Target: M15 family metallopeptidase
Amino acid sequence: MGRSCHSARAHARETPVRTLLKNLIALAACAAGLIPTLSLAAPIQLCIDQIATPGTDGRVLGHLPYGDALASDLVAAPPGFALGQCLIQRAAAVDLTRLIRATREVPEIAGTLRAVSCHRSTERQRAVFCGPVGPDKPYHNAMERARVVAPPGYSEHSTGYAVDFGLRPAPGCPDVDACISLTPAGRWLLAHAREYGFELSFPIGNPQKVTWEPWHWRWVGTSSKAPGATTARTIFAQARTSFPAKPAVVDTADSWLRIVRQPPNPFAPAPLPKPNSPTKP
Ligand SMILES: [Zn+2]
Model:
């Protein structure tokens, strides 16, 4: 039973007759399923000194919940790509390899693309997230930090489908900084990453209120029929519906639907009759 039904029941124990009747009616409506109820999410311990209660859509500090990838589903990224270690879902690795090969054909950016971060377990995410916050720290409070770092259990990196791209040599632009969008490689990603099944999870001005991350791309497959794409798209279904990526992977079928939805052009000439079709008088 949801929160609204619980509060109605609690009120009913100690209110006058009129309120009691109203609450009884509300309880009956709850029992009949007429009142949409809110889920009662239990508080969760993010860090030793931080507890948070998920919102009604499951988000914590703005981030959606994600489980850990199975170790058996993860493979190493192509040699030379990782700065340190980069494990990624096997299905995504195929397209990542194609993407890296494609960049080698572009003289301006050939050989510069690297992985700053790929799969991060929930425990690793906890270590990253649970640093100190305060007036003399990089982040003044947990909400400010959560705009940049997802809480443990709420990072796309734990799924094994997300990659943080960086550049070597670094062109005067540090890792995980929006300045990558101004570099030739960053611009290439914005123009072409979706051709390899990657989409930008946190676009500029996103309603999720996560900071703009032009380095963070998640894999969903070039089409729903691509091997492994259904699993990835199921995991990211809520994110893709509520907070769409941009650039986003758009299937051929989706493009076709968009064309159909375009309003008719009132100035377009009338179509000519087909050669063999009978003409009306
Ligand atoms: Zn990231």
